[in-house]
Amino acid sequence: MEREVQRVRQAFLSGRSRSLRFRLQQLEALRRMVQEREKDILAAIAADLCKSEFNAYSQEVITVLGEIDFMLENLPEWVTAKPVKKNLLTMLDEAYIQPQPLGVVLIIGAWNYPFVLTIQPLIGAIAAGNAVIIKPSELSENTAKIVAKLLPQYLDQDLYIVINGGVEETTELLKQRFDHVFYTGNTAVGKIVMEAAAKHLTPVTLELGGKSPCYVDKDCDLDIVCRRITWGKYMNCGQTCIAPDYILCEASLQSQIVWKIKETVKEFYGENIKESPDYERIINLRHFKRILSLLEGQKIAFGGETDEATRYIAPTVLTDVDPKTKVMQEEIGPILPIVPVKNVDEAIDFINEREKPLALYVFSHNHKLIKRMIDETSSGGVTGNDVIMHFMLNSLPFGGVGSSGMGAYHGKHSFDTFSHQRPCLLKSLKREGANKLRYPPNSQSKVDWGKFFLLKRFNKEKFGLLLLTFLGIVAAVLVKAGYY
Amino acid sequence: MDPFEDTLRRLREAFHTGRTRSAEFRAAQLRGLGRFLQENKQLLHDALAQDLHKATQLDSAFIRKEPFGLVLIIAPWNYPLNLTLVPLVGALAAGNCVVLKPSEISKSIEKVLAEVLPRYLDESCFAVVLGGPQETGQLLEHRFDYIFFTGSPRVGKIVMTAAAKHLTPVTLELGGKNPCYVDDDCDPQTVANRVAWFRYFNAGQTCVAPDYVLCSPEMQERLLPALQSTITRFYGDDPQSSPNLGRIINQKQFQRLRALLGCGHVAIGGQSDESDRYIAPTVLVDVQETEPVMQEEIFGPILPIVNVRSVDEAIEFINRREKPLALYAFSNSSQVVKRLLTQTSSGGFCGNDGFMHMTLASLPFGGVGASGMGQYHGKFSFDTFSHHRACLLRRPGMEKLNDLRYPPHSPRRLRVLLVAMEARGCSCTLL
C-alpha cells in the first residue's frame, strides 16, 4: 500500500499533472471513456443494483458527462490568478490568489451510486491538478471492477490509480499520508476517516448522510407533491443519501398522502412492481435484513412485501410512526415513515431535536412558511417544493453540515475543494525609503502614520487616492530626510 | 395577399433541406432556448405578471450563509489579542455563539479577556473559559459546531482528532519553518532590512516570520555585514537596552531557544540573559539540516543561513520539507520570484518582503499541509464560520416537464432525455 501511494506521489512531484493542457487532456480522456465504454459501465451498475439502463444513464452517467463538460469549459478561467483589492501600502504591488493543486488526493466512493459518487469527485481532483488514488466501494463490486479496469486504459496510469478492497485494505490505505481525503459514506466511518486524517493533518471532505425530513404543508397541491416525493423516495430503491427520508405532516393529511403515493407507485412501477425494470434492488443481504428489521412493530399502510432471494423490498409507507422506533433512527431504504405533527412549529422542533440532515424538503404554496422552515432549521441543502433537485445544479455546493458532513463539491466547488488558494504578494526591492516608516527605532508619530496608511483602503475616489499618494510620498521623503 | 405565405414557405423549404434533423442542430436550438430563459428571467417574470398576474416564477437557486452554531476558538500566546479577536470577529459576524479559550501562557491578556471582554458582549452567547493543556483536553471532549485553533502542528493534530469524534469541522492555523530565499541578484542591505525586521519583530515569536535564509555562499558574505548594520540601526549597539526588542514569553521557550544558539556558528549576536528572558538578535551560519535549529520551528530571534548553490537547489530543499505557512523570495528578477512561487507550495507567499501579505484583508490567510487547513481574514473569516447551505426553491407548477423523469421509462424517452441534456444550460430546470 505504501509503495503504491509513494509511486503516485512521485508522479505528482514530477509536475506533470499541473499544466492546464494536461488536465484538460485527462478530462477529455475520461469523457471518451464514459462515452465509448457506456455499455460496460451501465452493465456493471445494473449488476450491482438491478438498475435499468435508463436509470443508470440518467442518474449517474449524465451527471458525470455534464460535470466533465462544465470543467472543460470553465477550467481555463479557474486556474488563473485572481487579483485582489489592495491597500495603500501595497498599492504598487501585485496581489492575487493563485489556486494550486494540493498533491495526492484519496477518494473513497460509495455503493449506492457507485459510478458518479466516485467519478464526480475524481473530475474535481483532476481539474485542480492533483494526483488521485480512488478506492471504490467494495459493496458495489461490479462497478469497482469496471472502474479499476477502465481508468488505466484512458487516464495517466501513474497519476490516477484505483485500489480495490474491503475494510482491511481501506484501513491500511488511511494510515498513509494524503493531501486531501474525500469520503462519501456513513457517519460512523466518517469519524474514522477524519481521525485517521488528523494524524497527518490532512484536510477532509466528508459527504455523509442523515435522515432528510420532508415537511408537507396543508396548503399545497397534494397530487403533485406526492408524485415528486414518490419519485425521490423510491428511486434506487430508497438507497439515496438525499432521498426524502420521512414525512412530517398534520395527521389529517396522512391518509390522503398514503393514497396518493400508493397510486403514484402503481403509475410508476405498475401493478406488479417486481416486474418493473425501473425498480431497483437492495445492494446486499446485510442491508436487506437491516431494512427488513425496521418494519417490525410498524403500521404498514401499504407495501411491506419482500423477497430475500432477489433482495426485493416493495415501496412501503408507514403511518403514525413513533419517533423512538428503529425506523426513525436509521436511514436508507424504500420505507417511508409518516410522523404526524400538530403544526409547522412542532415540525421545526422535531427537526431541530435531531442531527442536522444532508437535505431538507418542504412542500407548500405558502412562501413565508418555506422561508420560515429554512430560517429555523439547518441542513446540508434544501429543495423547496421538490426533492433531490438541488443536487443537479452544480452552481450550488453539495455537502452536509454537522453529522451529515463537512465540505462541499460539484462544479467550481469541486475545483475549490481540491485546490489550495494561495495568497501571493509580489513587491519590488525598490522604494526602500518608504519602509523606513516601519523600522525601529519607533516613535508615536510613526504609529500614527502607520494607522493612517494601513486602515485606508485602495478604493477611494480618484482625488482622495491622489491626495493619499501625495501624502505618502511626502511622508517617505520626510522620513528619509530624518525628520522621524 | 396572405401575410403569412412568405414566412411559411421559407420555413417549409428550410425543413426540406433536412437541416433540422441532426441531433447537433436540435441541441444547438435547445441551447439557444436555454440561454433565452437564462438571460431574460426578469423580462419574462415581468411579462407574465403583467399578462396574468401570475406569481409564476422560474426556480430560484441561492446559497445561504448560516451560522454553524457553537464555535470554539483556541488562541495562542504570541499575538494574544490579535489572534483571539480577529477570529472572534469572524465568528460573531457569521452569527455564531462563541466559546473563547485564550492562551494561559500570556497571562495578562488572558485576565483581561476573561474579566473585561464579556462585559461588552451578550453573555448568553459568549463565554471565556480558562485553563491549561488538561482543561483544554476536557473542553475538547465536548461537542462544538466549529473549532478554530491557532497553535503548533503537534497540538493541531490533537484538536483535529478530538473534533473527529463529533465530526466537527476545523480551521487550524499552525506553523512551520518559513524559508526565505535570497537570490544573488539583490541589494543585500535592502534585503537585510526587510528580513531582519520581520525576523526579530516580537522577538521572533511570529508564525509567519522568515525562519531561515537560503542563499549562496557569495550572497551570505554580503548579507552578514548588511544584517549587522541593520540590527545596530534598529536596536542600537546594546540591543538588550533597546525598547524596540521584545522578550521571550517564558522560561520554557527561553531554554529551548538558548539551546539552539549552540547550532552551527554564531555570526551575529548569540548573547542571552536568563533573568530577562532576553535573546540577542542572532544570525547563525554553517548549520546542518540535521541540527535542531533546522528541525523545529524556531519561533525566536535566531536566523540560520543555509547555503544553496542555485535556485533549483533552493526549490528542491524547500520541497523536501513540510509545506510552510509562508514562503519568501528576494530577487530583482521577477522570473526567479515567480519560479519559487510556482514550483513550491506554502500557505502564503510574499516576494521581496516579509509577511506584508497578512496586512491585506482581501487575501486569505491560512496554511496548507502541516502548516494548517482553512483560511480567514476579512470575508474569508465570514465564509469560514458559515455553513454554505444550497437552496433550490422550485415552483409547484410546470409538473408536465417533470413527467420526463418519472417511470415507467422507455427507450424513446432516453433519446429525448439525451437531447435535452445536451442543452445543459437550463436542462436542470427542464428536468
Automatic annotation (TrEMBL), chain A:
The active site is at E207, C241. It catalyses: 2,6,10,14-tetramethylpentadecanal + NAD(+) + H2O = 2,6,10,14-tetramethylpentadecanoate + NADH + 2 H(+); hexadecanoate + NADH + 2 H(+) = hexadecanal + NAD(+) + H2O; an aldehyde + NAD(+) + H2O = a carboxylate + NADH + 2 H(+); heptanal + NAD(+) + H2O = heptanoate + NADH + 2 H(+). GO terms for cellular component: endoplasmic reticulum membrane. Its main location: endoplasmic reticulum. It comes from the Eukaryota. One of its GO terms (molecular function) is 3-chloroallyl aldehyde dehydrogenase activity. It is a single-pass membrane protein. Belongs to the aldehyde dehydrogenase family. This is Aldehyde dehydrogenase. It comes from Rhinopithecus bieti (Black snub-nosed monkey).
Automatic annotation (TrEMBL), chain B:
GO terms for biological process: aldehyde metabolic process; lipid metabolic process. The gene is ALDH3B1. Residues 36-387 form the Aldehyde dehydrogenase domain. This is Aldehyde dehydrogenase. Keywords: Lipid metabolism, NAD, Oxidoreductase. The lineage of its organism: Eukaryota, Metazoa, Chordata, Craniata, Vertebrata. Belongs to the aldehyde dehydrogenase family. Gene3D superfamilies: Aldehyde Dehydrogenase, Chain A, domain 1, Aldehyde Dehydrogenase, Chain A, domain 2. The active site is at E173, C207. GO terms for molecular function: 3-chloroallyl aldehyde dehydrogenase activity; aldehyde dehydrogenase (NAD+) activity. Pfam families: Aldedh. One of its GO terms (cellular component) is cytoplasm. It comes from the Eukaryota.
